[in-house]
# Entry
Amino acid sequence: MAINKLDYRKVETCLFMHKEKPNVFLLRKVIGSKYFTKVLTLDTRSGWSKREYKNEAKKELVKW
# Structure
């Protein structure tokens, strides 16, 4: 599946958030000269803001 980078905005280094879906993230890792990309979809929780989703994505980025 192709990933359209125009649908995402940069939140932090190696972390991109989908513009329309705040629970979908791109995680990016560079090892040597190779780029590895992972699409992370968090469970939608009622009452969560974009900031809370971003904090959860940061935790997953550290684990990965």
